[in-house]
Amino acid sequence: MSEMSSKSLKPPEISMSETLSEFSIAGAAIEGLLQESSAKIKGWANTDGQDMKQIFAELLHAAAIIRAVFWRKLDTKGDFKTQVDKIVKDQSGFVDDLAETPPKGKESDWKEYLEAVQKGFSDLTKDRTPYGRDSSERPVIKDLNPNPGNND
């Protein structure tokens, strides 16, 4: 979850500031448009500490997940409906097969995944401060299973 969504949202601090403009929007004639003027502009202060780079990174990550899940290459010359029907039937068969016999993963795969989550996937993103925090404040995942070898 993003830092912004986990905190209680409060309205941004709105402020008005006077700024210079290279043209005047109040001029009635064309000559008046080219006169320098000043105008009040409404803005807001960034109080949560999250910048646009972090927000866009989260959005890009979510978009990549959605694309990976739903992207399918279709033949533009073929029948669209037939191709989509085939994809849906293939996927429903996969889900049915998976429900009957779930795959057995290796314990090491799970441990590697937990380590990657704790590090904020920094190996993939090259982000030095994943989760918007330094390494001492990152999440720690603890195994609460009384029998660590048993995943049931």
Q: Looking at the structure, what is the overall shape?
A: flat
* Total beta strand runs: 2
Q: First CA to last CA: what distance?
A: 27 Å
- Main sheet specs: 2 strands, antiparallel
Order of helical and strand elements: HEHEHHHH
Secondary structure tally, helices:
6
Q: How big is the Rg?
A: 27 Å
Q: Strand portion, in percent?
A: 5-15%
**Share of residues in helices:** 40-55%
Task: Compose a concise summary of this entry.
It contains six helices and two strands. The chain is of the alpha+beta class.
Structure description:
By secondary structure, this protein is of the alpha+beta class. It is flat, with a radius of gyration of 27 Å. The chain has a two-stranded antiparallel sheet.
Element layout with pairings:
Elements: H1 3-6, E1 13-21, H2 30-33, E2 37-45, H3 52-70, H4 80-100, H5 107-118, H6 122-125
Antiparallel strand pairs: 1-2
Q: What structural keywords apply?
A:
disordered N terminus, flat, two-stranded antiparallel sheet
